Amino acid sequence: MSASQTPSLPATLIDAATRAELSKMYANFTQQIELHTYVLRATSPANGSGKAAVKVGTDQHEALYEEFSVRLCSELASTSPHMQHIPHVGEKTAFGEKIQFFPTILLVVKGQSKPLFRMTGAPLGEESRTLVQALDLLGHGTSTLSDTAITILSELKTPRHVRVFSSPGCPYCPGQAINALKAAMQRPDFVTAECVTADEYPEYAAKYNVGSVPHTQFTEDHAGVGLMTEAAFIHELTHLAPLPLGPILNDAQAQELDLVILGGGPTGLSAAIYAARSGLDSVVLERESFGGQINVTPTVENYPGFASIGGTQLGEILTAHARQYAPLVRTSVQAIMRDYVFSVHTPERIFKAKALLFATGAEWKNLDVPGEHTFFGKGVVHCASCDGYMYKGKAVIVVGGGNTALTDALHLKNLGVSVTILHRRDAFRAEDALQKAVEREGIPVVWNSIATEVLGNKSVTGLRIKNTVTGAESTLSAAGIFIAVGQKPNTELAVPLGVALDSTGAIIVDAELRTNVPGIYAAGDVCGGTQQIVTAVSAGARAALSIFEDLQKEKA
Mind telling me the catalytic residues? Predict the structure, then answer.
């Protein structure tokens, strides 16, 4: 943007259809909610031209962030008589505490002496989802924590101010921020929650060595990286340690079903739809984010019916459709036991089912080189959509040569990141369209080279590489290493049940997607083969129909 251009916002940030949906969502609030916005500059409503009243200057982007925050909170508050927007200009203290960053948004239940939730930074992208969900939770006045989580949290004896660092492109971040808010609502005597837009405040993020999001700072010295299930988050918050396996709940706490679907990506969601339409009572269990890895795909251009659609948007469409047919439960599976039925144990409950479908997908492979583990989340990352914003103006290396690697490189380049691709071969394996796009964008490639060590101090500073042809070693400077070298199937829950795997670690299935263990089926990326959204959806449907047919035969 040139100095002569005035940053602008649309005349209305919330369209009519979204406004109507929000009004329905907020209609039954039981508490009055105040949205306090703290900015340094006076703002005014958008003028008739559709441009926000923002003065151009060296701080024009900061002014735009403030304008956006004030406008969005004002429009959100106007969707419900139970909400009030209270703007503050130039004030640097609030509720007895110092305001250090602008804009800041505080959500306060009217009549309470302190805010339970703070948003540091403009709620752009996924942070706006966090704000909408936080208002919904606060307005209804209950934390919605499970009995298991409430029991764990009751053991907390030390105050916690939980900071969740996020970015506009991270679909996992709202879930982690809402976990923090739930804890604050349940234990307001000990817990407060903050969502920080990491790329807006790099010095604040650097203080806690944030290199990947969601990054959760539970105390000044204890942090966690990645989205956690509710029980895992609450345990980490309370005990500053991971949730241990067990104890296993008793059968009196079990729910009986026809089918348990493990995994909430396209395969699992499709299976849920087809299972329900076949008359099967099922549930989908997902430990991270419903929609799966398409949520972190910047743009999808090969899914029939959508010439071009954001990965997160497509994930939302699939999730909303499946939710009409089956319960979608975000939790972790601690154990699976087999007797006359399968018993799937989670921290909150037991699910008993006649059949299991493994739609657990695949996870990113690592480089397995020195320094990779040490600097994971501190410059070594896998998700360009989640973490790319934090590397604007910095140099990064994308390691890999397939579709994911090239897509990530193009996305980072578009964000203003200086990208170099490192590939072990002399030609890419990616689609021709992606290869041409990389060439067109002028993204440099280091061919015939592998990573041998991740370098850094507190965070990544570079990568030591080796040429596979000459054997020569050299060093590339970089603030971030984005790893995209393929995936490995998630089979850790299947192996103890005796499910057979092939030489690549994928689950072996027959034409009807049955495994070698009666009653256990598998579909999608966990079975290897072509890893595309359209094939994953198809496999989920096929698996559900096979399960229905087999259960019908058993009844006969």
Answer: 383, 386-387
